[in-house]
Amino acid sequence: MPIRVVGFDGDDTLWHSETRFHLTQAEFRDLLQRHAPDADVDARLADKEMQNLSIYGYGVKSFTLSMLETAIELTGGRIPAGDLNTILGWGKKMLTQPTELLDGVEETLRAIAAAHDVYLITKGDLFNQESKLASSGLGDLFLGVEIVSEKNGDTYRGIFKRRGIDPSEFVMVGNSLRSDIVPVVALGGRAVHIPYQVTWAHEEVAEDLLPKQGWRRIERIAELPGVLKDL
Amino acid sequence: MPIRVVGFDGDDTLWHSETRFHLTQAEFRDLLQRHAPDADVDARLADKEMQNLSIYGYGVKSFTLSMLETAIELTGGRIPAGDLNTILGWGKKMLTQPTELLDGVEETLRAIAAAHDVYLITKGDLFNQESKLASSGLGDLFLGVEIVSEKNGDTYRGIFKRRGIDPSEFVMVGNSLRSDIVPVVALGGRAVHIPYQVTWAHEEVAEDLLPKQGWRRIERIAELPGVLKDL
User: Fold this and answer.
1) Which residue of A has its CA nearest to B161?
2) Which of A164, B119, B174, B225 is at a distance of 20 to 30 A from B113, taking alpha carbons?
3) For B126, which residue in chain A has the nearest alpha carbon?
4) Which of B43, B62, B96 lies at the terminal end of a domain, its last residue?
5) Which one-letter DSSP state was computed for residue B93?
6) Which residues of A are less than 8 Å from B78 in CB distance?
7) pTM of the predicted structure, to 2 decimals
8) How many domains does chain A have?
9) Do A92 and A24 belong to one domain?
10) What is the pLDDT of residues B193-203, one digit of tens each?
11) Same domain for A178 and A150
12) How close is the nearest chain B Cα to the Cα of A222, in Å?
């Protein structure tokens, strides 16, 4: 079946995201270590994020709230409010930074959109994802935009139904094995994995859980048009 | 044109929401007045929410972040971290409270859904709105769910296009004149306004900006089936 529809993930596939979380987390570590020199700040924050995931969901606001809670707990409430205000400021900075596209994204997306129906299928905070899309300059290239709270089989099944897409004519392109590759291949779609320079541990998948076929891995998005031809 | 499609707002139309914000804000006022007895806490928080709306969007996480920032600024950074942790806890409590339906919602929605295509069209935080819908027990009654970051003409136009809805066969039901009534009537749809006991100032509309026809006001959702017949 030839590919008619191409879905693109947003964060770390079209534009940089995880790097910004890492940079903020490094600042957070430095700040907290001034108050609690022996603390494993990264581990405590990661635990807190996982505890809060079912309450807050994904995104920068959730990350900011988890940083604040970690900071208060880890210092036994001794952290000054001014430092917590600094953390609030980091969250705002992340939310207002211009969208920075990965290399080759605009040309590749234009080329693909000329011959396929192209959708953005991205996870996270609705408001922030819309802001990023708006400032990306890519909005007109997408036939549709799906911002979802989680990318699993049910999510993709719903999109296929809503958009009249047969999985056999669909390919998903993204950096997350867990969100972009595994559930799509399981439904009979195809997928192209483009690893990002940093992966959030939560998105990793054990090698033996990966599908044996139906997907390819490439190094950069510019290789995508060639790969789509013989996927 | 007979009505084929009915859109329902969620917050304060199907389930209680604003009341919870008000209750939390009352606790916030009490907490802050212990540190700053002369401060106009409500006005400062409202200002902060409006400043942050273009960065955070709507929802409980945004409200929590704005409470924290207001608390720090209003006390000149003197508020103890423990009090800020209390505020974080209020946010979590709001996000995890069970969905509480308004009177008559379930019966009315079942009756309407038996003869119409019914959509949930709601504004706010994607993750939290999905959680509320899931715990409402109403999920199966909706043919589709649209969670959007803002409800204006463009939003409704996009939904009509995506869902194949002609505005002349559509009625929107909600508590907000600004979000549920004015933009829908402007596009040629019809609307039913059901005021809630509390309205967020941001959602209010001056009487002279209201459309002259194409909408009705009822007291409670149980009146809706009767009104749909002769709208």
Assistant:
1) A144
2) A164
3) A126
4) B96
5) H
6) 81
7) 0.92
8) 2
9) yes
10) 999 988 777 77
11) yes
12) 31
